[in-house]
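Q: What would this chain look like folded?
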Amino acid sequence: MKLLFLIATFLFSSCATKSTSVEGRDLEQLYQGAGVERYFLPDLPEWANFSSSSSCQRSTPIKFLNFSTLKASYSLSYQNLIHFQHMLNRRFELFRSQSDQPLYLKDEAFIFYNVYEQVAGGSKDFVTPNFDRVSLVWIDPHLNSLEKVDSTLNKEEVGKGHPVLVSACLNTKELEKLSEKKGWDRFGVKHIGSEMFSPYDAEVELGHDYSLNFSKFLPNKALYLFAPYKPKHFKGMIKLINN
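A: My prediction, written as C-alpha cells:
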C-alpha cells in the first residue's frame, strides 16, 4: 500500500510540475514584451474595426501605433511613423499566416524592434515613386463595381503620374492580391492600405478620425486624386480630378 501511495504521489508531482512549467512558459511568453506595449494604441474590437470615412467594415485587424510616444522615444518623422505602422502590421500579418500560435508580447517586441531597425536604416516596404507626379486612385467607393477602377486606370490623365491605389477598407496585402487578380499590376501600381492611416495628424496630434497626410507622406510630389470627391481622411495639398 505504501508503495502504491509513493507511485501515485510521484505521478501526481510529475504532472503538476509539467503543468506548472507550461503555464509558467506561457505567462513568460505573454508578458515579456520589453515594454513595447506602450507604443501601441488599444486594440479595436472587431465590431469597431470600421472606416467611417470610407463606410466599410475592415476584415483584417490593424495594430495602430501611439505616434506621440514613439516620436518622444525615437524622434521619428511623421513619414517614418507611417512606414513603421505599415511595416509592423505586414510583419504581424505574415506571422499569423505562418503560425498557428498566438502572437505573444515577446513576439510583438521582437518584430517591433526588428522593424524599427529597418525603418531607422532607411528600408521601407512602400517605396516612394520617382515620378514628380502621383495619381492617387481611391478605390473604396467602387469596391462593389471594380470596373470603374479599370476605366480610371486606363485614363490618359492617370498615366501622367505614377498610379497609387488607396483604400481605408483594404490593407496593402489585400490590395496587392486584388491588383493581381484584376490585372492592375500591369500599370505598375503602388498601394496605400488601411494600415497606413492613423488617428494622429501630421503634427502628431491625436484626432477623431483615421487619416493620412499625403503631402507629408509623399513630399515634393504633385498629388492628383481620382475620386468622386475628396474624402475628409485624405489630408494635404491634393488636386481632385472628379471621376
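The mean pLDDT is 85.
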